Amino acid sequence: ILNYERAKKLSPHDEDVKFNLNLANQKIIDRIDSAPTLFINDRWAEFCNHFSVDEWAVLSIFIFVFAAMMLAVFFIFQKVTLKRIGFFTSFISAIIFFCTLLITNSQYNLEKKHHSAIIMSESVQLKSSPCEKGKPLFMLHAGTKVEITNTVNSFSSVIKTEQNTGWSEVKLPNGSKGWLKNSEIELI
Questions:
Q1: Nearest residue to 157 (alpha-carbon basis) of 123, 120, 114
Q2: What pLDDT sits at residue 158?
Q3: Residue 32 falls in which region: left (phi positive, over 0), alpha (psi -120 to 50) or beta
Q4: Which one, of 104, 172, 175, 144, lies nearest residue 5 by Cα?
Q5: What is the mean pLDDT of residues 87-114?
Q6: Using one digit for the tens of pLDDT, what is the confidence trace for 1-45?
Q7: Exposure of 68 in the CB half-sphere (CA atoms within 13 A)
Q8: Mean pLDDT of all residues in the chain?
C-alpha cells in the first residue's frame, strides 16, 4: 500500500496504480469511512485534484501565453472587431490564468503541508498523549492510511534508528485522532 500510494503521488492518472491500490486496500483489516462533507466541497476537491501540481502549472503557463497573444492582437490590429475580440479574450484569459495560478498554489501548499503515512506495524495502539503511559484510545492495523497532524521530536522515514523515537499525532478519515510512535509508520 505504501508503494502504491507513492506511485499514485508520482502518477495520479495511472489506472494500473489506482486498480492495484484499491485491490491492496481491500485486504487491510481496518475499514474506516470518511466523515461526510458537503457536495460542493467534494466537487471542488475533485476538480482541483484532476490535475497534478505540475499539470496545473503548465496549464497556467499556456493560458498566460494565450492571454499575451490576444493582448498583442488588440495592440497590433487596427480593425475594431479584432481589437474587441483581442481585448475581451485576453481579459477573460487573464482571469482564468489567475484562477489556475491560485489552484496551482493551493495544490502545491496542500501537497507540502499534507503529510500522509501508512501504518507499518502489524497492530498499533493509538494513545491519548505522546507517551507510553498515555491512555489507549483504539487499535489500528498494518496498511491503514493516516494523516499526520502534529509531531513531537524528529521523524526520519529513511533511516529507522534509536533517534526515531518521536511521536506523531495522526488523524483518520473519520476525524478520530491519536498518538503513535514514529517507528510504527512510514511517510508516503
A1: 120
A2: 45
A3: beta
A4: 144
A5: 91
A6: 899 988 888 887 889 999 999 999 888 887 777 767 788 888 888
A7: 6
A8: 87
- CA distances to 26, 99, 123, 139 from 30, rounded to whole Å, are 10, 39, 10, 9
pTM: predicted TM-score of the whole model, two decimal places: 0.65
Q: For the chain, where are the alpha helices, taking DSSP H only?
A: 2-10, 15-25, 39-48, 53-76, 80-113
Find the length of the chain.
188
Q: Which amino acid is at 69?
A: M
Strand order in the sheet with 123-127: 136-141, 123-127, 177-181, 167-171, 145-152, 115-119, 185-187
For cell 511521536, the residue is 167
How many Å apart are CA 90 and CA 29, to the nearest integer? 54
CA distance readout (Å), 108 to 16, 53, 71, 123, 150: 25, 6, 29, 33, 20
Tens digits of residue pLDDT in 129-167 = 888 888 999 889 888 999 998 888 754 444 444 445 789
Confidence (pLDDT) at 164: 55
- Give the whole-angstrom CA distance, residue 32 versus residue 70: 50
Contact 71, 82 (CB under 8 A): no
> From residue 147, how far is each of 70, 133, 187 by CA, in Å?
44, 23, 9
